[in-house]
Amino acid sequence: MPETKSRFLIPVVGAAVVVVGSVAAFMYLRGPGGDSTGALSSAKLVPSSALMATYITTDPQAWAKLQQFGTPEAQKLVTKGLEDFNKDVLSDNSISYEKDIQPWVGGLMVAVLPPNAPKSNQSNQPPATQLRQEPQMLMVVGIKDKLGALNFANKLKGQKGVKSTESDYKGEKITQTTSEGNSNATYSAVLNNSYLVFSPEKPVVEKAIDTFKGQPSFATKDGASAVLAKGVDVKNSLAQIYIPDYAGMIQQIVAANPQTTTLTPQTLKQLQQVKSMVAAVGVDDAGVRLKAIANLDPQLNKFQYQNSPAKIVGQFPSDTFALVSGQGISQSWKTIVEQSNEYPEFKQALEQARSQLKTANFDLDKDIFGWMDGEFAFGTIPSNQGILARVGFGGAMVFNTSDRQTAQATLTKLDNLAKSQTINVATRNVGGKDITEWQIPQQGALFAHGWLDQNTVFLAVGGPVAEALTNNKNQPLDNSESFKAITSSLQKPNGGYFYLDMDKTMTIVNRFAAQSQQPIPPDANAILSSIRGVGVTATSPDKSTSQVEMLLALKPTAK
């Protein structure tokens, strides 16, 4: 984004930047005063042409929950960042966010309007030199204390370096504000003494006034009204995001940029699978939670969702620090192959992959993906033994299959391929299970595979990882405190998990940092140390709805 746009908030009545830029940090530390307006009310001032809108609440109970989390180092870091930000923005020390701004600010809506249509190229300049068109921004701030807002406005008039001029538009005053040393102006208007609307573009504020006077609004826009009314169920909602026409939003942004190629019909068809989207961020006892709901076109959505029982997670040991699980790779592969017919370049690459594998006696569709019809999981497991001693971890893939014969035939072909490259392939028994290893002299097994039960096969990088999978004495991952804390509150049933244990991950990261003599910066380490882990899952109750939920599990503040 050009500098003139990226800094457009700076001159807003001298302090509107604080309203937007530091509202989250401030509320995290001190808690806001309250909320007098909601997303639907704010949306009534946003023009119907808006592509998307985000509503940030100032409910004190919601933001106060954040104060339960974070290490002392992380909170000190946020405090310092807030203080530095305020010093940079409010050069006049007589202005205080806590005393002068926070008491009167209600909810905040940030709307994205379509970019201005690119102007025709009247000059002899080539198209590449034309200015990139950026989306236009409109902000709507609820005013919960009219007297407090008036006192603040009067105080700002005497602030050094701030110049304001007023103009009339349809009976409403538009204030143009500039700051000393900055030629970029910001435009704002107070509507019905209940809302402050502002933007770096005067026509955008005029459009908001038109909407206030009765023109169609975002709240009544086809698709928007539904997502605004539906919302997302999260506790202590901090922000809601509304996109009523996903494909249309992308189209308008691309069309307004003369340097971007036109969307192909195939790409547009993919985008049109998602009709609308609504997302929310909230905070509960586990941490910060994000939920997103996409309204899909069932006629265009070709992927068949399958619930996953998640039993395969129990095949991994408790010290597994990252994992992705799901269901039905073979069905997804069939859908990808079917859709490749609409993408000539991808179809060509697919045919090349098939031909190359055939030279090694592998059928890509049958031998690689055909038997992966059950649950699957990919995980990383710490180990300091053998070939893994240098990196500190290895990986494993575990599959449930109803076609053991084809799966075993594929593994046998892999072993024969390894033997042809003079790799020693040997079988040994671990925990009562036979595992086949590709061994490297004096370093141990590079790769291993075997069967955990009649229908569950594993492939592992590193002999120690294979041992961890087959050793029945290990506590399973799904019974570990970390996995339960990070994933147990996610929606069920679901299609699988993404799981990350931050503490165990940071052990590996710090190890690499020490080896490269580039330690993690203290500020970054303070933030990461406040995170317990990340859990993500997805569900699809029907073919027209897809839901994603993510939990950023945070550590409680030490008492």
In short:
With 559 residues, this protein is α+β, with helices and mostly antiparallel strands.
Task: Characterize the structure shown.
The structure is a single chain. With 559 residues, the chain is α+β, with helices and mostly antiparallel strands. Helix content is 33%, strand content 29%. It has a 20-stranded antiparallel sheet, sandwiched between helices. Strand 6 and strand 7 form a beta hairpin. Helix 15 packs across helix 16 (404-420). The radius of gyration is 28 Å and the shape is elongated.
Q: Could you give the topology of this structure?
A:
Elements: H1 3-6, H2 16-21, H3 23-30, H4 39-43, E1 52-56, H5 60-64, H6 72-89, H7 97-101, E2 105-113, E3 136-143, H8 146-157, E4 162-169, E5 172-179, E6 182-191, E7 195-199, H9 202-212, H10 224-230, E8 237-243, H11 246-255, H12 265-271, E9 274-284, E10 287-296, E11 322-327, H13 329-339, H14 344-359, H15 364-370, E12 375-382, E13 393-400, H16 404-420, E14 424-430, E15 433-440, E16 444-453, E17 456-461, H17 463-470, H18 481-487, E18 497-501, H19 502-515, H20 522-528, E19 531-542, E20 545-554
Antiparallel strand pairs: 1-2, 1-8, 2-3, 3-7, 4-5, 5-6, 6-7, 8-9, 9-10, 10-20, 11-12, 11-18, 12-13, 13-17, 14-15, 15-16, 16-17, 18-19, 19-20
